[in-house]
Structures are given as structure tokens and as C-alpha cells.
Amino acid sequence: MQNMRKSRVAIVCLVAALVNLAIWGALNRPQSAKPYTGKIMGVSYSPFQKNQSPLEQNYPTPAEIDSDLRLLSDKVTQVRTYSSLEGQEVIPALAQKYKLRVTAGAWLGKDLEKNDREISSLIANARNYDNVERVLVGNEAILRADVNVPQLQAYAEQVRAATGKPVGTAEPWHVWLEHPELADSLDFIAVHLLPYWEGVPSKRALGWALESLRRVEKAHPGKQIIIGEIGWPSGGQRWKEAKPSLVSQAQFVREFLNVAEARKFDYFIIEAFDQPWKKELEGSAGAHWGVFDKDRDPKYPMTGDIREVSSWPLMYGFASLLAMLPILLFLRHWTNLRRGGQIFFACLTQVAASILTWTLFVPFTQDISTAGLVVWALLLPAQAGLLMVVLTNGAEMAELLWVRKWRRKYLPLDPKPDQHLPKVSIHLAIYNEPPDMVKKTLDGLAALDYPDFEVLIIDNNTKNEEVWRPVQEYCALLGPKFRFYHLPKWPGFKAGALNFALRETDPAAEVVGVIDSDYIVKSDWLRSLTPYFEREEVGFVQAPQDNREWQGDLFKTMINWEYNGFFNIGMVHRNERNAIIQHGTMTLVRRSALEKVGSWSEWCICEDAELGLRLFQAGYESIYVNHNFGEGVTPDTFAGFKTQRFRWTYGAVQILRAHWRNLLPWKETGLTMGQKFHFVTGWLPWFTDALHLLFTFAGIFWTMGMLLSPRHFEIPLAVFLYPTLGLFVFKVCHSMLLYGAKVQCNFWQRIGAAIAGMGLTHVIARAIFLGVFTKSQPFLRTPKGENKPALFRGVLMAWEETQIFLLLWLTVFANFLYFGFNHPEGFLWGFLLGIQSIPYGAALVTSVASSMPTIQFRLPWRSRRYLLRWRLAQRRRSMGASGNRVSS
User: CB of 297 within 8 A of CB of 290?
Assistant: First the structure.
């Protein structure tokens, strides 16, 4: 049996590894290009090393230049220089040692005195060294408007007269068409053909270059023309439709070299070595034009296949090892799954590990700036956190969709006639509640089919006597089982009221029940659940919350099904490892256990969930019976819906701050690993909502930076963009698949629930930040029974979210205005900004829905038939439930 289990684990791991290998191989498949086996005729040569820059007046030494030329000597026949000062005046002499021909250049700018020194040094080199065959006076000086045509012609005449060697200048192809007179005083012209800067895609780049050369030749018949610069960058930012990449550079250069050899072109590939300093002038692509990288290593072979990332097998191996531990842990603890679920999670883990690995290796596979490195360092842990959320959601999906048989599935019990049923003390804490609503709750309790119970109603801090006095009078009518207490000034909020009730509880009561003020319980609630307390290890029994009076109301329908997902998905998943969240209504707690762990915590605004954690830590077991035993009312407004979720989120952070040490996996605290796992990962998605808020404002700031200072702000690395998009798609699929499988609602109700859930993203984020940076917040009551707001108020309830939504779409518009729709990275960035806006738009939609009048709408026939079948099944299940625990 053990060997069989090990073989199954091995098969799952092997399948996941092979799937991941296929993905890596597909993304890194080799590319082909026509091989080139000859020598390169010429390369343009800037001698600056990776840590040098003329902008900082940090120049290469003669020894460094000598090393470069020695490296080039067996690969090229000539080099082109751009300046005859600042250390580059030694190039002709050193090149002569290695029998390299030189096309020497003089840099012309607006500084006339420096121009004169450049010209003087150029003349001296041209006179002194025979390997200087021709000279270039200026490089794109007309394009930059540093000099005019007559000035440049005068410099050219001066050099020709002093050296007797052919004189030319270098300009982009279109300058030679716009200024044909420039060529009149030159012996030759050097044309720059750089399709990247024209936004031409790499597949059409060579054809565009040849056509541009033909146009220059046609405009200057009989004039000697050399190609002063031609090439393609291997990295950097996309420019219009032109995408830099190593494969594109290798393909372009190899294909051009073959064409140049066949047509006898005189040319210079730009350039010999990558020049990182050019980022300041030309952006990220400016640093990546070299045939060799900044460390003087060749970037690609001139024959054979080309790969963008040659080290991908190493990265794949690292990713596979990184994924192995979580896969093995999963297979060890999730043994109750069918093979499909195991393979699904193993493949998902492999993909997540690969994404993280790809991001981790970015500084080694790409040349990123210092600012880019800072962004990478900040986003890497954020991406790791998001991937952790994906894996926890994936584990939930695997269990819920592929479970063989639930081990901890509990049904309502039917006690035997002579079975002992413990006395129950039901505690109802109210504050400023509508009296009519509370009376309905009391009527439901009065109708309980149970032999021995009491009800304690504690009204704390309600100031208006007209609100609490009718409830007190109604309790007197219901008889001695109902005791009412009014506490004018009582600390501790709801927990304080419940602790007061605990002190007033009948000494004979063994079980404490808690419900909310709006809950109408069913008569069999206590009879069906209290028998579970026969087992001493049971600390609390929990039934789900459910809602009434939502049918026909769009907003309440949306939030009803949003709530429903937690009880039919999250709680079912947690129950399998005895790790449910205790929520403060429809809960029954063993009184001795409650008193043993210290009663309700008055410092925490989610006293129910905090108590559940302490009960688990004390070694008690929970029972979750996923059956409707009562119904409450939903909040009437989006403001109430947000207030409720704010309280839950803030309370969760309070709990984590107080108990985080007890949740550490290596610490013995009485909690099982499964309980620790669920209490940490169950609240982790709320922290990703906080990250969403950070990323939203960071995205707006970064977009403004790209528009106003494009040299310093580039589109974030695609390695962060694509996983972000993938995470959104995964979350949508996760929600829709689980709702479709586990929640009895139709497709449009699922959509409504998703919109309502996303609409809470901003308030959850605010609660997380306040929870992290503050110690306490006032208890926020969820208002019930409010009047419907006007449409204008509906917008105002989501005013903060609406402002962010509009700001994001203004940013999206500015992004597309700048990049257009033919810039894939720019389009993706704008698209992701739009995705970022969805939760804020969802908040506005949900808030407006809460302001709409109640509409009695009819479901489509298929949906009504589906809902009717579900209700009949629920009724049969309730009527036919036996007293046996369902377990494996």
C-alpha cells in the first residue's frame, strides 16, 4: 500500500514536471536565421566600459581600448569611431597594431571651441596613421541642429585640405533626402538605417532598410554611399511596433550580413559593444545595440539556432525544485483527492514556481536600470504573495472539485426520545435595533421545539428609550424564559454585552447560543445540533448564516449570494481540517469551554472569530452543519454592506496581530497545521486587496512618470504584467467554477455576487491598512432596516471608489493617447490599468443597485425550475436526515 502511494505521488510529480517542461520549451523554442560564416566588414566602436560614461567624464584607458581592439581583430576588418578626443584619439594607433582599418570621426556639437579641438585631433590622426582610410566630420549633427549645412561643409573642406583623405558625414537616411545639398561638398555619404527608431517591426526591418538605402541612392546618383550604422537592439523598451529582443537582433544582423556580402555593401554594424551609458540619452534600448554585451561576451552565434534565454534549462530546473516541496506537502495532506485534483494542483504549483523563478532571474537575464532594479526588488515579494494566494485558492479548488468523500460532513441530528438534551442559554445582544425586527427574532426563539432553554436579551448603550422599551415590554409578554437587560453605559461593545449575559446565565445551562438581532431561527435549530455536545471534545457547533427578503431586490440578491459563497465554499473547505471561522450568529458554544478560554474578548471587534481560534488552541473540536436553521436580513445599503465588511476585516487584522506567534508553523501552540494554514491563508486574499490599492496609486503615478519623463520611467517589466493579468483571469475562473459547483444560484446571480464581492476591495484595503497601523477602531454596527437611498446617495456611498475609478480611466485614456493601440506593451499596460479599475467600478455598480427600488422580477423558466429542484432537494434532505454522522 505504501509503495503504491509512493508510485502515485511520483506519477503526479512527473506529469506536473513534464507539463511545466513543455511550457518552458514552448516559450523558449529555438529560432533560426541564415548562418553567416565570414568576417564582419565593420562595426561602430564606442570604447566605454560598463561602468564608464562620457556624461560623467569617466573615460576608458588605452589598455581597455587595446583589449577591445584585440578582441575585435579576428572578427571584423574595420572600426568606425565617433570622436577624436577624450581618450578615443588613441584608437587609430592601437588599431594599427591589429591591422584594423579605421573610419575616424570627429564629434560636432554646439560648442565651437570643442569642435575645433575635435577637428584638430582628427586631422592629426588622419595624417599620422595609414589605417585611417577616410574620415567622418560629425555624426547626426544636422539632425540635432547642432550645426547647419554651411558650417558642416566648411569643417569638411578644412579636413580634406589638411589630410587629403576622403571626407564624409553621417546622418539618418531621411536627412539625405531633406538636405541633398549637404552631399555636394563631400567625397562620400554615410547613411544610418535604424528601423527600430522608425518603429518598424523586426520581420519587416531588413526590407525597410534596403528600401531606404535605395531611396538615398536614387537621390544621390554617382555618390559613394556607405552604411554608417545599421542594426537592431537586443533589449529595452518597445518603440511603436518595434520590439527589441536578442533573437530579433541576431536574425536581423545575420540576414543583413549575408545580403551585404552578396551586394558588396560598405557598412558598419552598430555597434561593437553594449553601451549602458546611452540609457540616459536614448532610453533602455540605447544600451543594447552591441554584437557583444557590456562584459565583452558575444550575445549570439553566427550559425545555428538562437535562443532568447539560453539559460532556461537551469531556470526550469530551479523552478521544478522550488515547486517540489509544496507539491509533496499537498500530496501528503490532501490524500482524499482524485488523481485529477492532485495533478491540477501540482501543475498549478509548477507554473507558479516558474513565474516566480522567471522574475527572480530578471537581473541575470535582462539588463535593467538601477530604478528598474528597485522596482523589481519591491514587486518580487508582492508577486510571491499573489502567487501564494493563487496556490491557496488552487488547493481549495482541487479539494472542492475533486474530493473523493468528505471526512467531516455533518448533518442535522434527530435525537432519540430518551437522549439527554442540555439546557441552552441563548444570548441576544442588541443596540439601537428597530423594535419590530427584534420582536420577529424573539417570536422565532419562542417557537423553538426544545425542552429547556432561556433567552437573555442585552440592550447595551441604546440611548433612545422609545427604541429599547418596546422590546423590554415584549419580553415580559413572552414569559419567564425571556429576560431583558438594558445597560445604559456598558464597555466592550457586543463582546461586553455577551460577557454580561454569560454572568447572568442560569447555572444549569451547559450550552450558550448566540444569534443576531435580525435572525428568525427555525424551530428545530437546537434539537438538531445540541446532541453533538455529547462528545466532550466538541467546543462549538456552527450553522451557516442565511438571509431572507432578498428576492426581487437587485442589491440584496447580489450580496445574498456573495455571502452564500463563504458558507458553501470556504466553510466547507475549512471544516475538513477542523478550522472553521466561528461567526457570531447561529453558533452554539459549550459553556465550560467558553469560560475556560476566558469568555469573549472585548478588545476585538470580531470577538466571535477570535473566540473560535482560542477554542481550537485549547484543543476543542468544531462541528459545521451546512444546513439552514435561520435567516437574517441583509444590509439595506452599500454603506451598510461596506461597514460590515470593514468590521470583519479590521477584526481579522486585530486577531492576527494578537495571535500571529501562535500561527507560526514551527511553534507548538495547540493548533494543528491545518488550522494554522486556514487561519493564515483564509485572510490572505484581504491583504492582496491592500496590495491592489497600493498598485492602483503606483500605477497612476508610474503612468504619469512615463508620460512626463519617459527617459526615467519605462513600462514595467512584462514579467510582472502578464502574471498580474493571469492572476485576474484565475480569480474569475476560481470564483465562477466553485460557485457553479457548490452554490445553488444561476449564472447571472454568480455574476452579481462577483460584482458585489469585488466592490468591497477598497473598503477591505482601507481596513487592512488601518488594522496594521492602529490598535483599535470603534465597533461599527451594520445598519438594518434602513430606508432606500436616492440614486444620488447611491453614488455618494461609493464616492471614494468612484473618484479612483475615474482617475484610473483618465490615466488609461492618457496612456492610449501616448502609446496608441499598436504598441503591445503600452496596450497591455493600459489594459491592466483598466483591470485595476474593475473593483472600483464594481463598488459604484453595487452602490447604485442598492439605491434602486425593489422590483418583483421573474427568473427565466430554466432558472426557476433549477431553483425549485434545489429547494425540494433541501426539504427532502432536512426531512430525511438521520442522526448518524457521515464520515469515511
Answer: no
CA-based nearest residue to 349, from 357, 360, 359: 357
pLDDT single digits (tens) 823-852: 777 888 899 999 999 999 999 999 999 887
C-alpha cell recorded at residue 170: 553621417
Cβ(781)–Cβ(430) below 8 Å: no
Domain with CATH 3.90.550.10 in the chain: 424-641
pTM of the model: 0.81
- What distance in Å separates the CA atoms of residue 428 and residue 505, rounded to the nearest whole number? 12
> What pLDDT shows up at residue 861?
44
The string of pLDDT tens digits covering residues 646-705 is 999 999 999 999 999 999 999 899 999 999 999 999 888 899 899 889 889 988 998 998
Check residue 90 and report its DSSP letter: G
CB atoms under 10 Å from CB of 468, counted, come to: 25
3-state secondary structure of 650: helix
Instruction: Assess whether pLDDT exceeds 60 at residue 788.
Output: no
Distances from the Cα of 712 to the Cα of 452, 532, 709, 788, 820, angstroms: 74, 65, 6, 50, 20
Nearest CA to 439 out of 451, 430, 452 is that of 430
In a 3-state reduction of DSSP, which class is residue 368? coil
In the chain, the amino acid numbered 386 is L
What architecture (CATH level 2) is domain 40-287?
Alpha-Beta Barrel (3.20)
Q: What is the pLDDT of residues 209-241, one digit of tens each?
A: 999 999 999 999 999 999 999 999 998 888 888
Pick the CATH number of 424-641 from 3.30.750.24, 3.30.1330.200, 3.90.550.10, 3.90.1720.10: 3.90.550.10
